[in-house]
Amino acid sequence: MAKRRSLLLALLFTATLCIVLIAAVAATPPAFAQSLPNAPDAPGSIAGTVTAEGGAPLAGIEVQIYRLQWYGGWWSERTLTTDANGNYLAAILQANTYRVAFRDPAGVYGAAYFADAQALGNATDIAVAGVDVTGIDAVLRPAGAVTGIYSDTTTPYIYTEIAALVSGDGAWQKAASVAVTTTGPYTLTGLAPGVYRICAYAQWYLEPLPEPSVCYDDIISSPDYAQPVTVTGGVTTTGIDLTAGVEGDGAVIAGVVRAASGAPLAGVDVWINRTYGPGMTQTTDAAGRYEVRGVVPGQYMVAFSESATGIYVTQFYSGSLTSDQATVVSVARQEVRGDIDATLPLGGMLSGAVRILGQKPDDATVSAERLDSTVTSVMRGAVYDRDTGAYRLTGLLPGRYRIYVQARLDSLVFSGYYGGATAETAAEVTVAAGAVIGGLDVNLGAGAYDGEIAGTVTAGGQPRPGIKVTVYSSGGSSGVVGTVTDIQGRYKIGGLTQGSYRVGFSDPAGIYATAYYSNALSLTDAWYLSMDPVRQIENVDVDLVAGGAMNGRVMQDNGVPVPGKSIFLWYVFEYNGVPAYLTPLTERIVTDSNGIYRVQGLRPGVYRVCAEGYYPLPPTPGGCYGGPLGISEPTMAQDVRLRVGVETSGIDIFVGRTLPERTYLPAVGRQ
Length: 671
Known about the structure:
The protein is mainly β and about 675 residues long. It has 6 domains: about 45-140, Carboxypeptidase-like, regulatory domain (Immunoglobulin-like, Sandwich); about 145-245, Immunoglobulin-like (Sandwich), CATH 2.60.40; about 250-345, Carboxypeptidase-like, regulatory domain (Immunoglobulin-like, Sandwich), CATH 2.60.40.1120; about 350-445, Immunoglobulin-like; about 450-545, Immunoglobulin-like, CATH 2.60.40.10; about 550-655, Immunoglobulins (Immunoglobulin-like). It is flat.
C-alpha cells in the first residue's frame, strides 16, 4: 500500500513538473538567430555588370553613383570602375534614392544611364534602404560624336556650353556638353547612338541662361523646334554649326515713336526687357520707326528713352511711367507685333557736376526726387561720366525736384543734395516742359574730414611728453594713425571721418604702462569714441602709471631656440588673492632669431604668458610658462608677478615634444 502511494506521488510530481516546464517554455520568447533569412544587409549597396552588345564584359568603365538631394537635384556620390569581368559594387550606401551612370573613359562606347537612358534626368530611380540592390546592369554601344563651329560676336558672354539634348521627364535633358569660347570649333564625344537636339547655352553674369540661346539649325524659340541630329555608333556627324544672334524662328516687335505733336522722333532708344538675360535695344530712325527682330518668344516690357536732347519723358508701353504699370507685350514664335507704338510728352533735362571737396569722385549715383507726387519717370537717361564727373538726368516729368547724390571716393561713401546737405536744406529745381537746365553742381564732403580727438597725457598728474598716442578704427586691432605728445603732454589727431574710434597710449621708453581710453588694459575693453556725426572730441585724457617689463626665451627639443613665435599675455584679475578672470592684452610680441622676447610697458600685477606661432616652419607646438607640455592654455599656466620699475627675467617657455633633462618647474613663492 505504501509502495502504491509512493508511486502515485511520483507520477503526480512528474506530471506537475512537465506542466510547469511546458508553461515556462510557452511563456519564454523565442531566441532568434543573429540574422534572419530576409533581414536587410545594412547599410546597403548597388551592384551590377557592364557589357558590350553581344555580352562581352567591359573592364575599366567608369560607374558614377548619384544621390537624390532634398531640393530635388542629384549629387555625384561616388565614382567606381568595373573590374576585369565588367562587375562593380558600390558598398556602404546610406538609405536614399540613387541613379547610376556608365561612361567609357576611352570614348569607345557611348555613355548610358540605368536603365538604358541617355541622360541623368531620364534615368531610373534606385531605392536603397539597407539592402543589396543587384542587377543594375548596362549594355554599352559604340559611341558617336558631333562636331561643328560655334559663332557669337554679338553678346559679351564669358563662355558658352554646347549640349546634346534628349527629351524626358517633361523637359529637355543634357546628355553631354562641352564649354567653348565665343567663336571656334566644338566636339561632343561619347554619345550613345540615338537622336539629339544640339543647342548652345550662354553663360550670363556667372549664371547660365535657363534656356538655350540658339539650337541647330538657327532655332532660337525652343529645342522643341530644333532639327534632330542622328548619332550613329563609330561615326562623327559633322557640320552641326551654331550661330548666336540670328533671327531664326524668333518674333518681331516694331512700332513708331512720336512726340505729342505727332512728329516722329528719331534717336529714341527702345529697350526690350525680359525677366532674365540681357535686353535687346534699338534706336528709332528718321521716321521714328524701330524694328527688333529675332525676339525669343515670351513676355516683355518695352521702354522708350530719348537721350540726345533729354527733354522727352521716358516711359513704358503703353504710356506708363513705371514698370509695374507697363503693358506686357507677349509674342509667339515667328509672330510679328508691329503696333508697339509710343507717344513721348515733353519733359526736361537736368545736368551738373559731382565733386567731393573739389575732387572728382570715383563713382556716383544721381537721382531726381519728384516733390509734386510720388509718380516720376524711370529716368533711363540718368548717367554719370567717371572721366569728367558730370551727370545728366533726362526725360523728367514737369514738376518740382530735389537732386540726390551718393558718391564714392576711395573707400568712403558720401551723400547729399543739390543746394544742401539734407533733404530739408536741399534746393528745389522746377522742370518745365522742354526745359534744359545745367550747372546744378553738387559738392559733397563738407566737414566729413573734420573729426578730431585731442587730450592730455599725464603721469602722477604731471604732463608727459613723447608718449605715443594711437587711434584705432572700430573693430580693428591695427592702429589707423598715431602721434606723439608735445612738451606739455598734449596731442591732437585730426582728419578723422565719420565712424567709431578707440585710443591707445604707450611709452616708447617703457617706463609707463600701456593704457587705453578710458584706463583700459586692452583694446577690446577700451571705450568707443563716436564720430557720428563728425565732431571734435576733446579731453580724451589719461594718467599713466609706472610699469614693469619681462623677458624670456622660447625653446624646443635640445634647447633649440624658436624664432618667430608669437607671445600672448593675459592680465590676471584677482579677488581676495585668488585669480578671478583673465583679460587678454592687445600687445603681441614675436621672438627674435635667438628665440628671445621682451615686453615692456606692463601694468604692475599678475600675468600669464603663452607662446603660439602663426604657421611656423617647421611646425612646433605651443606652450605656456609653467604650464603642461605642448598645451597653450593660459588657465593652466604659472603666474608671473610684475612690479613697478622691475624687469622680470627668465620667463622661459618650452614648446618641444619631450622635456629636457634637469628641467625644473618655476618655483611657486609663498603668498
